[in-house]
Model the fold of this input.
Amino acid sequence: MSGSSGKLGWTGIPLGGVSWRLSEDLKTGDWRGELKPVVDNAKCKECLFCWVFCPDAAVRWDGTKISINYDYCKGCGICEKECPFDAIAMVKE
Amino acid sequence: MSLQPKVEGLNGDEAIAYALKQCNVDLVAAYPITPQTIIVEKFSEYVANGEVDTEFVTVESEHSAMSACIGGAAVGGRIFTATASAGLALMHEMNYVAASHRLPIVMAVVNRALSGPINIHADHSDSMGERDASWIQLFSENPQEVYDNMIQAFRVGEAPTVQLPCMVLLDGFVVSHTLQDVAVLSDDVVKGFVGRRGLPLINVMGQTVPYKLDVEHPLTMGPLALYDYYFEHKRQQEEAMMNAKEVIVKVHDEYAQLTGRRVGDGLIHPYRMEDAEMALICMGSTAGTTRTVVNELREKGVRAGLVKVRTFRPFPAREILDAVAGVKALGVLDRSGAYGAVGGPLFNEVRSTLYDCADRPFVVDYVYGLGGRDMPPTLIREVYDDLARVVKTGAVQQTLNFVGVR
Amino acid sequence: MMEIRLHGRGGQGAWTASILLARSALLEGKHVQSFPEFTPERMGAPVVAYTRISEEPVDVHSGIYEPGVVVVLDPTLVTAVNVLDGLAADGALIVNERRAPSEFRAENRIVGRDIWTVPATDLSVEVLGRNIPNTAMLGATVKATGIVKLDSLITEVKARFPGKVGEANASLIQRAYDEVRKG
Done:
């Protein structure tokens, strides 16, 4: 069933190669490099541009304020670029 | 529940729509292309009249059609689409995905020449381009076989050991637009035969769940697999294709008991092969015309025979080997070209099959009928004459021949 | 096996005629084939359709090159297209034509074959109020060749065109059947 590498053989893998790990299990936050986004909620006008443009769904909007989910944020900096009010800054970790 | 057949006048496309209506699929997502258009036109009438519960989605391209079908099948639906030629080519990448996702989608492919030049008529170049996509391929000679193949296709693809998509093939115009007498079964009988799509069960974190996308048991279909796992996935698929042969024969047998109609053993139909000295191997409508020529030749005492291939994928190598025992010269009729290969696709597979034969016949390729070029009995007789020459002289002049081209 | 070729122009119903003929034969338990020839489709373009009728299952799937019967739905096609191509010397030619067969034969210098003429356009305009000659031509064809029974044709046409339209076509078929002339 599995080779000497410990990997599964073709009879051991599931039908169609389906997987069931939820995407949330993989905390991509540790892909982040040196910089992380920090939100200044005082400057924030809740326009939600950062929320729309985040490629990772790492910007949280709870109905009241914007926050960053650092478990998944990969530090791409698009939110800082898109914010029309300079309310987000990429700072050293 | 009456098994007394009703005879309808249907062309190949109408036969598909009729069978489809009786199989009551969950979703049809299709894009029109000649010569498949009658299928979707007819079927959309059934939908509009409320004769079926099928959801009919008009998509913007064939690529989208197959994508939508994959989505529908992934959530457990029984799905159908139809296309031809360039449309099939456009959905090419998704065909591989449908198979690797192990989804038993049924697709009618109305065999039509690929461009260029632009041509709307019959040849097999379109489906030959998908022969490595891991789809089951069943060829139909006439509208009756189209109807029969459609009903069986769902059962074959959905079988637990198979779980692969299935193509039902018919020659463009020659079968798709040609009306013939078709004995149809009653709705009840067809419903009883196809049943509902049964989903295989898989183990997800200790729970046994049906193989479908479900918010209760979240799954990801279509994963990434790099060099450490890709090969294992494809090996699994190869096994499914090997399992399909037995299932095709079984389903065909069951259907034959219901209808009294057979196409050989479901894989090939050997015709007057018992003492044949020379024979042709052929797929699609030309097999019928060839049969009339075999009968004529036999009247004259010529020991001619024919092997009609119904199942092209998985390729029935063992069965062909058995059928051609004793034949001295075997001609292969290819309705698609070679373009640099040793011969046309059917020829290559037949010849490869015969390599292991101790007393193997001469195998000669005859490419014919490209772009709908007619293949009348006169030309087929010429091919048998050529085979007779091969038998007489004990040599092949030319392995790759083109019949009917100026 | 009977092989029939029908010539028409787009819109005159040549393909439908070949289907009706096949379906009529189906009612008699025969085996059939009916298929059109496709060239750029537009109103007025020459159209050819074919029908095969047989006691045995029809296995041949190639074209019809030597029809036993040729039906011409449009008189102008006789000079535009070679309608006689492949028609045997003892074959039948049925033409939508006002003149008597002998006149038609003389003008077109046709040797052999049975020629049948019927003014299908005039009849269809009179009975249907429209120039759709196909059903009239089928009535004439049945009289000329007996390939299907008149009854079968009328039953099929009434099934295909229900109500008043079916009735009208049925009487048109009868008229053409009665009035077609041989020469």
About this structure: Chain B touches chain C through 26 residues (CB under 8 Å). Chain B has a mean pLDDT of 96. The two ends of chain B are 55 Å apart (CA to CA).
